[in-house]
Amino acid sequence: MDGFVVPNNSASLAFDNINLSYGRWDNQLLYRIKDFALLGEQYVDSSEGSLVCLATQTSVERLNSLPQVAANWQGKMSVALFAAGPEEFVVLQYFVTYMRLCFANIRENATFHLLTPRDFDKLPRVAALPLNMRGKFDCQYPDRTLKALLKFRSLKTLQWRQRNTYPQNHMRNLARKGCQTKYVFLTDIDIVPSTNSVPQLNHFFRTANCTKSCAYVIPTFEIDVRATFPRSKNALVRLIRKGLARPFHEKVFIYNQYATNFSKWLSPNTNETEVSVSHVVTNFEFLYEPFYIAVDNAPAHDERFLGYGFTRNSQVYEMHIAGYQFYVLSPVFTGHWGLQRKQARPAWREQQNNANRRKFDVFKSEIFVRYKNDPRLLLKAKKNQILVK
């Protein structure tokens, strides 16, 4: 579909019949939600033959990652989209239409849900975009396509985005509940699954027999942008040996993924053809944030956490307190583009992190009471037993 241009006829656009002036509210009356705003053509049918659905979420700026995710994940996808205002909604209309016309798996298997802020209607409104940009709408260049569309946002919309926090946990809950399968693989939009994951995982979960609350961790690696995405665990190992890949957040914040125990996962046994449990997570860290697959009866992501900090790890920590066991799977994995390095974070991000840190102290006390399981008391009891002995 070389040279494809999104039609100017608005009737052909995605979400064309969606009225964003109403929708269900979140618990804090901060956001309106539109579940199943756009269904994949085979979404219902594919649900019956699949055990795992990929749930992911994104703001409009990062939606260009979905085509690569969809290329590797040939199965059901539940995608939560955030539109800060009418301008961003129009951008979403055009870009989702572009993706559905260009990428068959997105058209057939991706279902989209929408979340908008309470003051959505107070931001600038645009009726249509002057799309005379034929060369920028080539199906081979989703990055270029989205970049061109984003230029139509006004300064007022951009300023609103800078002042307001991105509701990550609202988005995660929305994406999770959009899945119609027994198991949900919850990711962020820029996390790319390994190729052939869907049939491998379906085969594994047909015989998985977990007798307690279980979460299956998919190891995540950073991949140098100079490399090509590895098509197997063997290829990933070769990239690691060349310094072109490494465990996710290893240099930026090691505790983010440390409990996964990558050295054990990478130990010599890379000729695996079927998914199996590599090992059990035995050294759970407080700030652990794995990407995992679980039955969707796991605790919801607490929506008091807005913006950055304590969003994913608070939910994983609650799973830990609730008694979940984490199993690391192999040879499947996920990748994130770019070898991350420590750098000064913007002031607004650290402010959000500090605000969520204060909320976490309350959250932690609540879950200790909810599950009658305070790790501090357990540790104290073990120390007393040692002293008695």
Task: Provide keyphrases for this structure.
transferase, 35% helix, 389 residues, four-stranded mixed sheet, single chain, disordered C terminus, disordered N terminus, 13 helices, 14 strands, ten-stranded mixed sheet, alpha/beta, metal ion binding, 2 domains
How big is the Rg? 22 Å
Biggest β-sheet description: 10 strands, mixed
Strand tally is: 14
Widest β-sheet, arrangement of strands: 1-2-5-4-3-6-12-8-13-11
Oligomer: single chain
Pathway: Protein modification; protein glycosylation
Family: Belongs to the glycosyltransferase 49 family.
GO cellular component, one term: Golgi membrane
Protein name: Beta-1,4-glucuronyltransferase 1
Structure description:
The radius of gyration is 22 Å and the shape is globular. A hairpin with a 5-residue loop joins strand 1 and strand 2 (31-38). A 10-stranded mixed sheet has the order 1-2-5-4-3-6-12-8-13-11. It has 2 domains: 10-172, no CATH class; 191-371, no CATH class. It is of the alpha/beta class. 35% of the residues lie in helices and 17% in strands. Keywords: Glycoprotein, Glycosyltransferase, Golgi apparatus, Manganese, Membrane, Metal-binding, Signal-anchor, Transferase, Transmembrane, Transmembrane helix. Pathway: Protein modification; protein glycosylation. GO terms for molecular function: glucuronosyltransferase activity; metal ion binding.
